[in-house]
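Morning run. Coffee first, then this:
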Amino acid sequence: MAEPQGPTLDNAQTIDAIRHVCADKVFCRVSPPDSESRASMAKFLYTERHDDGSRELQISVPAGVEGDPEKGTPLRVAFDHDDRGMNFLTEFRQRVIHREKGRKEQEAWRIAFPQTINIMQRREFYRVKTDLVNPVRISIEIPGHEEEENISIIGEMDSFEEIAGTLWDVSGGGLSFRLALAPAFPLTRGMMLKMSMELPGTEGVTSLSGRLVYIKERADADKLYCVQFTDAGADVDAKHALNNVLHYVAERERATLASKSRLEDED
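And here it is:
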């Protein structure tokens, strides 16, 4: 398989990166090398070095995939690690049962361990729409704005520091939201925001910081505020928050694929 051009990790760095993403059960996208649009979400599960020096790598069966590719089929695996987008070329080996102490066994794909990993300039994950029937509420804080008593922005809030809205879409690299009401002061590109939300299927409150990079005017006179994450993976809490986001993205993608499959079956 031909390797993409660009910065790469050497062999030792590649082994270290794979160890970390397997330990953290990091989500990844799996696709044919020449068709990223056909990517499906999976998760790194397990790696080890065998006595003969070969290395094993297992990922979960990609979401929505029916059946297995032929042995030797080339694949592209893309993921985020160390605050960078990364990918590598590999090939399918076989379907196996992954067993891990304290966890329910699951079917997995064994794939070839990569010789090197390519470093990308952008993150690699899908952006998924949220459930508009049961919207995710999001709280937005604007660091640096002084609190002023007796000034109401939304509801009972009494400072310029926090506003409320609903999540519109989200990916591993950022999100967009709509505001519940027009803010008492304008939000402008370049502003640093701290966003907190309770994502379905995850534990606790997910909090991440980001920079407002784009404001999209909608036909209904509403606005979408697009934010790029700036601290994802920066520390333990941020890494946990990013994994919550990726878990939510994966579950939304699985739900979308399942719904699409049901509609096709009804046709």
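Helices lie at 11-23, 236-266. Good start to the day.
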